[in-house]
Structures are given as structure tokens and as C-alpha cells.
Amino acid sequence: MAKTTSFSCNACGAVHSKWSGRCDACGEWNSIVEDAGISTGPAKASLGNAKGKRVPLTNLTTEEAPPQRTMSGLAELDRVLGGGLVEASALLVGGDPGIGKSTLLLQAAAAFARKGLKTIYVSGEEASAQVRLRAERLGLSDAPVQLAAETNLRDILTTIEAERPRLVIIDSIQTMWSDSVGSAPGSVSQVRAAAHELTSFAKRAGVSIILVGHVTKDGQIAGPRVVEHMVDTVLYFEGERGHQFRILRAVKNRFGPADEIGVFEMTGGGLSEVLNPSALFLSERGTPSAGSVVFSGIEGTRPVLVELQALVAPSPHSQPRRAVVGWDGARLAMILAVLEARCGIPFTGLDVYLNVAGGMKISEPAADLAVAAALLSAREDTALPADTVVFGEISLSAALRPVGQSENRLKEAQKLGFSSAILPAGGKSGSGNGMNLTRVSDLTGFVGDIFGAG
User: Fold this and answer.
1) In a domain, 413, yes or no
2) pLDDT tens, position by position, 363-413
3) Count of CB atoms situated within 10 Å of the CB of 370
4) Which of the 8 DSSP states describes residue 275?
5) Binding-site annotation: residue ranges for ATP
6) Same domain, 264 and 289
7) How far is CA 26 from CA 30, 32, 114, 172, in A?
8) What are 197-228's pLDDT values in tens digits?
9) 337 and 219 in one domain?
10) Residues annotated in the binding site, as ranges?
11) Is the separation of the CB atoms in 112 and 87 below 8 Å?
């Protein structure tokens, strides 16, 4: 049987049937290398006459004990993990350079070690002395964490097998090198092979492993996407360099809810937990002005209030600008189109700027009505009342659709001192527990009733 050879791009992971100097997918030069398989497949297409052992089968009613979890004591981290660290699980943590991944994981390692878990921290990017200096700065020098500075995967696995720890942190997966793969560290083949070996070892030996992953300029974890499929949990550590807020977001979790978030604040002594994110995101909000609207959103199971800021100004250019920070630019274009086509409010010749205050990133459609309110407030130079929150989804017909968990959104708003809310008609929003609720059925009525425009 002829040997099948494949090639992949180190930059984007695209697979090619033959080598070439330039990747057709991303345009990078000299980035295509030959893939070396993790293991050699069977010599024949068929398994032959040799029989294997039967696999035990169970049904859906079979009762098994829930996976054993260990709480770190860091409430925000335990929340994102779904209630603590699961034994023999593999986690992948990604984030921008300098955002605080190593700081977070060193604090987590110290917290788990103090809870009784034997913990090993393996750094492939820093020397052990650098990790100790960071631990000293964070006040973690007394934590029983064992350190190692190594990139050879075979040596690391041998050490883990001999030490038998309960938790291993690998910082980072892109620095690991396997001698069974003939390519440079950080390449697609090396990352895939190292992730496969580490996750397989975690399941086989009952060790929890946390992998740190670099991200690309698009914010995705670098390397092949198959790595995210291998692990049990994928976490993203997000934040803006100019803000002290950091958000740990679960985008995949086999042992808990996805899209759960934990909020931290970067301080001189490391990352501190934020138990009330809404109050923190609104702490810098001054006197309400035109273009400022408070949106009551849901992140995972947690209601979060954030401020949306909009600015509409005459454009000196023939093509007006549409700048968005923290929200989807395509959805902003849709809201502008609905306002112009259905409500007769043009934004032609006007620059539009939209910002989510505090470095927060919003993805749920429930922010549509709050964005529209911010745009109209900025355009009409009319401020909404300071004690009002807004949420609702807008359809292309300008109808307002109810959103989920309205009761939780209203309770969070009332807890922070808001006394009125603007929300879509219908849905299970209840009475609002004494809040003044303004229900609107379509965007046209919202424009006329709230802003007197149309």
C-alpha cells in the first residue's frame, strides 16, 4: 500500500496534498511542513480475521457516581469550571499575550495545592526563577507547588508518571516538543501530538491537566482546532489592556454550563475576584448623557449590567465610519438598516461609534434594543433616565421579540437601584417586583413613545 503524505500550514493549519512555498489559504510563505502521524495505522484496510475483545455496553438508565470535583476556593474560577476541578479532566486556557494567563494559573495552582492536591507547574516559556519571582510578588511563596522548566514532552510525562500528582499545569502547549514528530515546536503537528499525548495521559492516569494556549490575531487559540475537541473544557481569558477587568469565559465544558463567565480585577497583588460584576462595570458611569444606555444581559447563568455608549456625528468623508468595540459590527449594520427602512430615521452622512464600557464583550441578540436606544439617544441628543435599563431583540420587520430570563435581568437591575425598564411586550417577565415596566411591541412604537421621533 502506498504511503499517504499530507502537508499542513504552521500559520493557519490548512491541509495540503503536496508541498508548496506559499499557503493558498492564508498567504504565508515557507509555512507548509510535512505532517507526521501520531501513530502508524494498520497495514491493510481490513482488520483481518483476528478478533478483539468485546466492549462492555450499558444503557441510559445505568447509574454512575458523578465525577469527583475539587473546589479551589476561588469562587469565580469554580463557577466557570462548573463547580470545581473535575478529576482526570483536560482543560485548555487561551488568551492574548500579557493578559494574565500565567498569573491566573499560578494563583489557581496555589489554591488547589493548599486544598491538598499535589500540583506541578511546568513552564516552557520561563525559567523556574521567574515563576518564583512572580509567586513572591503575588504572596504565594508558601504554597506547596512544585515547579519545572522543561519542553521535552517525553521527560515531562516520565516525571508526572513518577510523581503521581493530582494536577499538572503546562505553560504553554505551543512550547512542548515531542521527539516522535519531526517538526519544530509550535507547529501544527507538534501541538496536535503534544495535546493528544497529554489528554490521553490525563484520562489514563487520573491526572487533571491544564494547558495554556497562545491565540492568533483573530483571538482564536493557535494550532489545529482538533486540540479544542480533544480537551474537556476550553476557557478564554479576555480583557482590554486599558481596563483592569479580566473575564474568564467557558466556551466549552463537558462537566458544566458553557458561556459561563468569571470576572477578575487586575491589581498590583495579582488577580482579585469580582463577586458583583454589574456594580464594577457601572462604577465609572457618571451623569447620564446622550448616547448612554444600561443593558441588562445574561452571561451563562449570571445577569450582568453594562453600559452601552454611542456617538453619532456628521462625517467629513464620503463613506461614513462604523466603529464598534465589544459588539458585533454586522449586527450594528442591521440595526441601522432597520431604523432607516422601518422607522424612517436615516444615518446617511453620519459617523456611528458604539462602545461597550469596561472592556466587556457582548454577543447575545438581547442587546439589540439597548443599542438602538443608544443610537437614537445620541442622534437626538436626548438622554434616557438614569434609573432605566433596556433589553430586547429586534427582528428585520422592526418587531421586538421577548428574550429569555427576563425575571433575572430585572432582579439584577432592581438590586443595583434601577427602578424602570424598557423591554419587549409578551414573554414571561412577570411584574418586575415593583419596577416600572415599559413594554413595547415594535421599534416604531419605541421610537415614537420614548424619543418622540419618527
Assistant:
1) yes
2) 899 999 999 999 999 998 988 988 999 999 999 999 999 998 899 999 999
3) 25
4) S
5) 95-102
6) no
7) 12, 11, 46, 24
8) 999 999 999 999 999 998 877 777 777 788 99
9) no
10) 95-102
11) no
For 24, the grid coordinates are 493558498
Q: Is 292 helix (H, G, I), strand (E, B) or coil?
A: strand
- In angstroms, the CA 443 to CA 439 distance is 11
How many domains does the chain fold into?
3
User: What whole-number distance in Å separates Cα of residue 407 and Cα of residue 150?
Assistant: 51
Residues 79 and 123 in one domain: yes
Q: Where are the alpha helices (DSSP H) in 34-100?
A: 75-80
Kindly report the backbone phi and psi dihedral angles of residue 331, in degrees, each rounded to the nearest multiple of 5, phi listed first.
Answer: -70, -35
pLDDT tens digits for range 263-307: 999 888 899 998 888 887 787 676 778 999 999 999 888 899 999
* SS3 state at 322: strand
Amino acid sitting at position 393: E
Predicted confidence band of residue 185 (pLDDT cuts 50, 70, 90): confident
* 261 and 350, same domain (yes or no): no
Asked if residue 49 belongs to a domain, the reply is no
Q: Is 227 helix (H, G, I), strand (E, B) or coil?
A: helix
Domain around 147: 69-275
- What does the alpha-carbon distance between residue 364 and residue 328 come to, in Å, rounded to a whole number? 10
Q: Kindly report the pTM of this predicted structure.
A: 0.78
Vertex 397 angle, CA 391 and 400, to 5°: 20
Q: Contact 400/442 with Cβ under 8 angstroms?
A: yes
Within a domain: 46: no
- Position of cell 492516569? 205
Measure the CA–CA gap between 234 and 71, rounded to whole angstroms.
Answer: 18
